[in-house]
C-alpha cells in the first residue's frame, strides 16, 4: 500500500478520500486554493499545501502546481476525485512521467471513453447493446440522413467530445436534420474545439441506470450493481438510488454482464461507471462510460458494503481488490442519495454562495452525511455548489423514503438557501413514491410552481385562479 498520497480535489470528495486514507494508515496531502484556506479537507488531511489562487484554472486544474505539490511532499500517488482533472488523460500521463501513480484507469482507457463516438464504436464491437445509430462519427449531413432513415425519426445528434448532455440536438424529421446537423457541428466546434458528431435514435422518456464496476491488475473484475439517476435537472443529478426500482433480477444480471463486456473491451482497471439508457420496454443501451469515481458512489457502498475509495487505493497500489469475486458481492436493502446544493430551488436553482451560520446535520440509524460544511463556513463562489450528500438506507425503498423524510426534516442549514425544500417536495410526490421516474421528472412533476406551492402551502390551482 502507498505510504502517502496527494488528493487533487476539494470539498466533500477530498474529505471522503482523507477518511479512507486514515482508516488505511495512508498519509494524506490535501491541496487547496487561496479561496479554500479554511476548508475542512485541508484541515483534516495530514498535510495541506496551497496550489494557487481561487480560479480553478490556476489551482485545481493546474497540472504543474499539483504535480509539484506531490513531489515536494513526497506523495507516491495522486487521487483525482471527480471533476477537475479526474478524466484528463494528459494529467494521468503527466503523473506517470513524474513517477507518481494516478489512482484511476490508464490514460488510454480515459482517452478512448472520453471520445463518445470512439466509446460507442468500441462498445458496438464488443457486443454491448448500443442505441441504433451510426457506427462512430458521421461526416456529412447526407450520411446523417442515411442513418436517420435507417433507424427512423426522431434522432439525436451528439458531439463526440460532448457527454453529460452538452452539444446534443434532436431532429424530428428530414427537414430539421440538415439544419440541426450543421448547428450541432458548429456548437461542438465552439464548445470543444472538435466538430465531430454521431447519430442515435432518440429514445423518448428513458431512465438513466448506471452500473458501478471495479477491476484490478490481477484480472479480477466485478460489478457492484446499478444506480438509478433519473432525477436530474439540466443534466445535473439531484437524487440517485440503488437498486433501480425499474430492474428485474434478470435485467440486472444482463446489464451487469454488459458492463463487464465494456470493462474487458478497454482492459479497464480501477473504479468506473457504465451508463445505460433504459427504455419504457425494458431494453437498455450503452450511453457513456465514466472513468472516475462518481459523486453518487455512496449509494452503492450502502447497499453492497464495499468501500469504493479503499478499493481504488488497493487497485492502484497493485494489490488484488478485496471484493474480487462476483459471488462475494451482495445487494442488501435500498439506499437513496439527496444532493444538498447551495442553490435556491425557488429561483431556478440559482447558485447561492455565502456564509453558513448554522449547520445541524441529521443522524441516527441508516443516515450518512458526506459533507465538508460546518457552522461558520463560507461557501466560495468559484466552484460547484455541492454542499452535502444525504444518503439514507432502509431495508426497503419505503423504509428508505420514510427515513429520508425524517432526515430531511432534521437537516438544518441557516444562512443560505439549499436544495433541501426541493427534496422534501420530491419525497412526498406521488410519481416519485411509485418510482415512476424518467429523465423528464423534474420538468414535469417538480417545477418551480410545484416547489413554491409546497413551501408556501398555497395550492398551484388557487394561485393560478388568483392571477
Ligand atoms: C439520449 C437520450 C435519448 N436518446 N440518447 C443526456 C446526457 C448524455 N449523457 C446523453 N443524454 C441523453 N441521451 C438517446 N439516443 C436522452 C438523453 C437525456 C438524458 C439522459 C440521462 C439523464 C437525463 C437526460 C436528460 C435529457 C436527455
Keywords:
467 residues, five-stranded parallel β-sheet, binds ligand MV4, alpha+beta, Rossmann fold, Dna Ligase, domain 1, globular, eight-stranded antiparallel β-sheet, D-amino Acid Aminotransferase, Chain A, domain 1
Q: Describe the strand arrangement of the main beta sheet, using strand numbers.
A: 13-12-9-10-11-14-21-19
Ligand names: ligand MV4
Largest sheet: 8 strands, antiparallel
> Low-confidence parts, pLDDT < 50 over ≥5 residues?
none
Form type? globular
Please, what is the average pLDDT? 96
| Share in β-strands | 25-35%
Radius of gyration in whole Å, from Cα?
22 Å
How far apart lie the N and C ends? 66 Å
Number of strands: 22
Under the CATH scheme, the architecture of the largest domain is 2-Layer Sandwich
- State the fourth-level CATH superfamily of the largest domain: ATP-grasp fold, B domain
Q: Which range best describes the helical content: under 10%, 10-25%, 25-40%, 40-55%, 55-70% or over 70%?
A: 25-40%
Count of alpha and pi helical runs:
17
The secondary-structure class comes to: alpha+beta
Assembly classification:
single chain
Query: Within the CATH hierarchy, at the fold level, what is the topology of the largest domain?
Result: D-amino Acid Aminotransferase, Chain A, domain 1
Domain tally = 3
Amino acid at each position: 500500500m502507498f505510504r502517502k498520497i496527494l488528493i487533487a480535489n476539494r470539498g466533500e470528495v477530498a474529505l471522503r478520500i482523507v477518511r479512507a486514507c486514515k482508516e488505511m494508515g495512508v498519509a494524506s496531502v490535501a491541496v487547496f486554493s487561496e479561496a479554500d484556506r479554511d476548508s475542512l479537507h485541508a484541515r483534516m488531511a495530514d498535510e495541506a499545501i496551497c496550489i494557487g489562487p481561487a480560479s480553478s484554472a490556476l489551482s485545481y486544474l493546474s497540472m504543474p502546481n499539483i504535480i509539484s505539490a506531490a513531489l515536494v511532499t513526497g506523495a507516491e500517488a495522486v487521487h483525482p476525485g471527480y471533476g477537475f482533472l479526474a478524466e484528463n488523460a494528459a494529467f494521468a500521463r503527466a503523473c506517470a512521467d513524474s513517477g507518481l501513480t494516478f489512482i484511476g484507469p490508464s490514460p488510454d482507457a480515459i482517452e478512448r471513453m472520453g471520445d463518445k463516438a470512439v466509446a460507442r464504436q468500441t462498445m458496438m464491437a464488443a457486443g454491448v447493446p448500443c442505441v441504433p445509430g451510426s457506427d462512430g462519427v458521421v461526416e456529412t449531413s447526407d450520411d446523417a440522413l442515411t442513418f436517420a432513415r435507417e433507424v427512423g425519426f426522431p434522432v439525436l445528434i451528439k458531439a463526440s467530445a460532448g457527454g453529460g448532455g452538452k452539444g446534443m440536438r434532436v431532429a424530428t424529421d428530414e427537414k430539421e436534420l440538415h439544419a440541426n446537423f450543421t448547428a450541432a457541428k458548429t456548437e461542438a466546434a465552439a464548445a470543444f474545439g472538435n466538430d465531430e458528431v454521431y447519430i442515435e435514435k432518440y429514445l423518448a422518456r428513458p431512465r438513466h441506470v448506471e452500473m458501478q464496476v471495479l477491476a484490478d491488475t490481477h484480472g479480477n473484475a466485478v460489478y457492484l450493481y446499478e444506480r438509478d439517476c433519473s432525477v436530474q435537472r439540466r443534466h445535473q443529478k439531484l437524487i440517485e438510488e440503488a437498486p433501480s426500482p425499474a430492474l428485474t433480477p434478470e435485467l440486472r444480471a444482463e446489464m451487469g454482464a454488459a458492463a463487464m463486456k465494456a470493462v474487458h473491451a478497454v482492459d479497464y482497471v480501477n473504479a468506473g461507471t457504465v451508463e445505460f439508457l433504459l427504455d419504457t420496454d425494458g431494453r437498455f443501451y450503452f450511453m457513456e462510460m465514466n472513468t472516475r469515481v462518481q459523486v453518487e458512489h455512496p449509494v452503492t457502498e450502502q447497499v453492497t458494503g464495499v468501500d469504493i475509495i479503499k478499493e481504488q487505493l488497493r487497485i492502484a497500489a497493485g494489490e488484488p481488490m478485496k471484493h474480487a469475486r462476483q459471488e462475494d458481492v451482495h445487494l442488501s436493502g435500498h439506499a437513496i442519495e439527496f444532493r444538498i446544493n447551495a442553490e435556491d430551488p425557488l429561483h431556478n436553482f440559482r447558485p447561492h454562495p455565502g456564509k453558513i451560520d448554522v449547520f445541524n446535520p441529521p443522524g441516527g440509524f441508516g443516515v450518512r452525511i458526506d459533507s465538508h460544511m460546518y457552522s461558520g463556513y463560507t461557501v466560495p463562489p468559484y466552484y460547484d455548489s455541492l454542499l452535502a450528500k444525504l444518503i439514507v438506507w432502509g431495508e426497503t425503498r419505503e423504509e428508505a423514503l420514510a427515513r429520508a423524510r425524517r432526515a430531511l426534516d432534521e437537516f438544518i442549514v441557516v444562512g443560505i438557501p439549499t436544495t433541501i425544500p426541493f427534496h422534501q417536495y420530491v419525497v412526498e410526490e406521488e410519481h416519485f413514491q411509485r418510482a415512476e421516474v424518467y429523465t423528464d421528472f423534474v420538468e414535469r412533476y417538480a417545477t418551480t410552481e410545484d416547489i413554491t406551492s409546497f413551501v408556501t402551502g398555497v395550492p398551484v390551482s388557487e394561485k393560478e385562479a388568483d392571477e
